[in-house]
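User: I'll paste a sequence; please echo it back and then give the predicted structure.

Assistant: Echoing your sequence first, then the prediction.
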Amino acid sequence: MRELLELLEHDARRPVSELAAMLHRSEYEVEKQMKELERDKIILSYNTLINRDKLGDDTVTAIIEINLTPQREVGFDSIAERIYRFDEVRTVYLMSGSFDLLVIIEGKSLNEVANFVATRLSTIEGVTATRSHFMLKAYKKDGVIMNDEKIDRRLVVSP
């Protein structure tokens, strides 16, 4: 099962016939296992990684560190749920360390992201502080190098 998951995580478009050959199993077995993994919510979705720089997309991505006051009997879960239901929110993690939640959001502009943090995140009961960091450039994402063009960086030697 783990081998199949690793192969799919690296390239979800790989045909079942290729997966079966790599795993030394039948296509039927691989398809059956994939359906079981989807049914059991181990595989949640199949995503496409997009190089937004090449697309010319001006989407602004921000990482927001959030400090919380946990709520009685539910801890951080109910606040996290409230936050992850916003359309702008791409990812939410409970963290250890100097802040409680790490939230990744996307917006059409810096102003839109700032407004979201100021009017929607910061006003949630239990949120005690936020710190915003704006992503400037992605070099590697989900194990994929974003700009893998071979550039000759050797110094020119002249006689």
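Residues 2-39 form one domain. The CA atoms of residues 25 and 121 lie 48 Å apart.
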